[in-house]
Design goal:
The protein is an alpha/beta fold. The chain contains 21 helices and 18 strands. Bound molecules: adenosine-5'-triphosphate, magnesium ion and zinc ion (ZN). One of its GO terms (molecular function) is ATP binding.
């Protein structure tokens, strides 16, 4: 008997409906085959499905079973075909009947017949809505991912036996309750509060601006100056994701299995830390079954690359295109895959291998050649894409010690965050119909439309361009940062003091 079950395949962030055809023939040699371009993981489904059915106390047929995954030209990856294959076999055996409405079955089986948390359920739910699929049968632990999409019924399945009873109407599984997105505000774990960092007022100000507008940030300074500490305090001042931003991030986290069991929408703004030993694929994405890299996991959030010059140059160069476009394209035989990668880069470095170049107190021990090699690892075009360049000097140790004895009133992350949130809200309103969320993402047309400079500001900018022979890209980036500074101040026009401040974050490093 032939039966057809609906499931889905993910290719990049695209979801394609897949028909799982199961045929059981009593004639011919007994066997169990899967056809239709399955990967190794899908082929292993045979063992899992067979054992799970037997361990659910259902007799496995001694017949010739053929499973076809159609359309055949789409590569099938992952373990999510276990459930539709099992249901297909049980339906062909007339152990269960199928729901009348269009339904997706999706999930990995354990050998004991229970269902495991399976990646990609959020995308499955999005696809269900687009394809008018009414019901979703997914593992219990993954069901909350789907429950944020209205107008579909999500059935959380714990085991194959539970599903059999549900489909036969002997014991109905309760639908997962719709999860309201606004209920999901989660706390980001934060390592340091800004109030724990003594001094460094100008660094804190620059970081606030970067976070408020989503601008890339580069910090340079001697060892122990507090660069890593400053960067690690950033999650505490980031606003949570807006609704649209959250949906975009959740897709990436769902398909990579980064949503924990029981989890739902991602609301905390991503903060990803990458070590310099990361592979190029790990950073930008790729592989034969193309998967997103760290830059996509940092989408709408922050990617922190500490010890920036230690990253291989070719790895860093791979950041250039995504930093410009906000997406990464991976070419594959089966078609190119795009992953969003609109991240804010935070990078930290010493000025030279020993770390003390330009330090007023300690002498640099590096040869000019060593310094040149070190700095050459960071190419001009890459550094040109960074809006805010910051020198982080060592704070005076005595001052630091004296101040830490008497608790000083440095501003808490929470109150800095309030300003960042306010500035972001202004941007969300401004770009409502533009498809972007922050000043850093403005294209030239947006700059023309939304960045009005008063006369003094125009004059100052013109002078700076000719005095420092700034590139066109730098010119536009300066205006974007000035826009953010004006937003923090709650001003609609950009005035000369905003331009002057953004110039500080640009000129200082190009001078060195
Ligand atoms: N301004 C500061 N306030 C409080 N503690 C500080 C400050 N600056 C540095 N420290 C202390 O010094 C330690 C080292 O700082 P951190 O690791 O951030 O330096 P770094 O600039 O990243 O150095 P490196 O270049 O060696 O990576 C911190 O963990 C912290 O304990
Ligand atoms: Mg450090
Ligand atoms: Zn040195």
């Amino acid at each position: 008997m032939l039966t057809k079950i609906l499931s889905a395949a993910h290719f990049g962030l695209k979801t394609i409906p897949i028909e799982v055809e199961v045929n059981i023939a009593t004639k011919g040699f007994p066997g169990f085959n899967i056809i239709g371009l399955p990967s190794k993981a899908v082929e292993e489904a045979r063992e899992r499905v067979k054992t799970a059915i037997i361990n659910s106390n259902i007799k496995f047929p001694d017949a010739k079973i053929t499973v076809n995954l159609a359309p055949a030209d789409i590569p099938k990856e992952g373990s999510n075909y276990d459930l539709p294959i099992a249901v297909g076999i049980l339906n062909a055996l007339e152990v269960v009947s199928l729901p009348k409405e269009k339904s997706y079955f999706f999930g990995e089986l354990s050998l004991d017949g229970t269902l495991r948390h399976t990646k990609g359920v959020f995308l499955l739910a999005v696809s269900a809505k687009e394809n008018s699929v009414k019901n979703l049968f997914v593992p219990n632990e993954s069901a909350n991912e789907a429950a944020v999409i209205k107008s579909i019924s999500v059935y959380p399945i714990t085991s194959l036996n539970d599903l059999v009873m549900h489909l036969n109407g002997t014991r109905v599984v309760k639908k997962t309750k719709y999860v309201e997105a606004v209920d999901l505000l989660e706390e980001t774990p934060v390592e340091f509060d800004f109030s724990e960092i003594i001094g460094q007022e100008s660094a804190k100000r620059a970081i606030e601006i970067a976070c408020a507008g989503g601008h890339n940030l580069f910090m340079q300074g001697p060892p122990g100056a507090g660069k890593t500490m400053l960067a690690r305090a950033i999650p505490g001042i980031l606003p949570s994701l807006g609704e649209d931003e959250s949906l975009e991030v959740t897709k990436i986290y769902s398909v990579t299995g980064n949503i924990p069991p029981g989890g739902s929408l991602i609301r905390a703004r991503p903060f990803r830390v990458c070590h310099h030993t990361v592979s190029k694929i790990g950073l930008v994405g790729g592989g034969s079954d193309p998967h997103p890299g760290e830059i996509s996991l940092a989408h709408n959030g922050v990617l922190f690359l500490d010890e920036f010059p230690e990253f291989p140059r070719s790895t860093l160069e791979a950041l250039r295109q995504p930093m410009e476009d906000g997406v990464v394209s991976i070419a594959r035989a089966a078609g190119s895959v795009k992953f969003p990668a609109n991240f804010m880069l935070v990078a930290a470095a010493n000025p030279c291998p020993c770390g003390y170049l330009g330090d007023p107190k300690r002498e640099c021990r590096c040869s000019p050649r060593q310094i040149m090699n070190y700095q050459n690892r960071l190419s001009g075009p890459l550094m040109d894409r960074i809006d805010i360049h910051l020198n982080v000097p060592t704070v005076d140790v005595e001052k630091l010690a004296a101040r830490s004895k008497v608790k000083i009133n440095a501003e808490k992350s929470e109150s800095i965050r309030e300003r960042v949130v306010r500035a972001r809200q202004i941007q969300l309103r401004r770009f409502k119909s533009e498809g972007i969320y922050s000043n850093a993402s403005m294209k030239n047309k947006h700059i023309k439309k939304y960045c009005h400079l008063d006369e003094d500001a125009q004059l100052l900018l013109k002078q700076a361009v000719s005095n420092y022979s700034l590139s066109a890209r730098t010119y536009f980036r300066l205006i974007k940062v000035s826009r953010t500074i004006a937003d923090i101040a709650g001003e609609s026009k950009i005035i000369s003091s905003h331009i002057a401040e953004s110039l500080q974050y640009r000129i200082r490093s190009t001078d060195e």
